[in-house]
């Protein structure tokens, strides 16, 4: 009879935010450099162990605060990863969440040399199977973009339709026709005009909008 392999349970999170890359908004995520084995020195998704007395969501938020300083308003469960050999000598089962943060929220990331934001399209080699995990999260985000208002969670309270289009372009990785996008968004009733105009622009200031589903995104 073989000895049972020890099993550890962890909670990790893929956090998406928009940051500048080559002068344009691009989808980024924060990574944490590992300071212990296994995978010492490699970048990994923020996460940590599940405490006996806490829920999975509580563990996700606690680990995010400890490793990145972030407290995302939109947080939902993605998948459970538990391949036998993913954790090395100790079997590691990870319950993974994914989250969205606005730019002002992303700016609150801990000032730490072991925490950094990277473009999703240019990630460094990741520890464990975290490249696969990120792939799953990107697919989920793209899928939900088609039938939910998930993109609004990456924007401030008030935004222009051009800014909303830039979010969709960053997630999809392709350009969208501005006129067609405007017609489609306005027809859905998912945004409403605030009556204000964007300030600080040289040309004619565009109208500002507000999401009609902001509360739905606070999950």
TrEMBL record:
**What InterPro entries is this protein classified in?**
NUDIX_hydrolase-like_dom_sf, NUDIX_hydrolase_dom, WH-like_DNA-bd_sf, WH_DNA-bd_sf, WHD_NrtR
Report the Pfam families cross-referenced here. Answer: NUDIX (PF00293), WHD_NrtR (PF21906)
Show the Gene3D superfamilies listed in the entry: Nucleoside Triphosphate Pyrophosphohydrolase, Winged helix-like DNA-binding domain superfamily/Winged helix DNA-binding domain
Cited PROSITE patterns: NUDIX (PS51462)
Every copy of the Nudix hydrolase domain together lies at 6-140
At the top level of its lineage, which domain of life is listed?
Bacteria
Which PANTHER family does this one have?
ADP-RIBOSE PYROPHOSPHATASE, SLR1690 PROTEIN
Stated name of the protein: NUDIX domain-containing protein
Recite the lineage of the species. Bacteria, Bacillati, Actinomycetota, Actinomycetes, Micrococcales
């Amino acid at each position: 009879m073989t000895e049972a392999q020890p099993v550890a349970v962890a909670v990790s999170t893929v956090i998406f935010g928009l940051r500048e890359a080559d002068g344009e908004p691009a989808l980024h995520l924060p990574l944490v450099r590992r300071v212990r084995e296994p995978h010492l020195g490699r970048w990994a998704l923020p996460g940590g162990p599940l405490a006996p007395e806490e829920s999975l969501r509580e563990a996700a938020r606690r680990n995010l605060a400890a490793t990145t300083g972030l407290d995302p308003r939109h947080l939902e469960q993605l998948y459970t990863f538990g391949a036998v050999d993913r954790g090395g000598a100790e079997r590691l089962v990870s319950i993974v969440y994914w989250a969205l943060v606005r730019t002002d929220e992303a700016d609150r990331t801990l000032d730490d040399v072991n925490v950094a934001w990277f473009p999703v399209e240019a990630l460094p080699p990741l520890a464990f199977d975290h490249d696969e995990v990120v792939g799953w999260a990107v697919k989920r985000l793209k899928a939900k973009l088609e039938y939910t208002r998930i993109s609004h969670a990456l924007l401030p309270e008030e935004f222009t339709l051009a800014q909303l289009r830039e979010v969709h372009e960053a997630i999809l990785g392709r350009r969208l026709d501005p006129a067609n996008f405007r017609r489609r968004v306005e027809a859905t009733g998912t945004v409403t005009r605030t009556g204000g105009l964007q300030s600080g622009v040289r040309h004619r200031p565009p109208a500002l909008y507000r999401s009609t589903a902001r509360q739905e995104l606070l999950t």
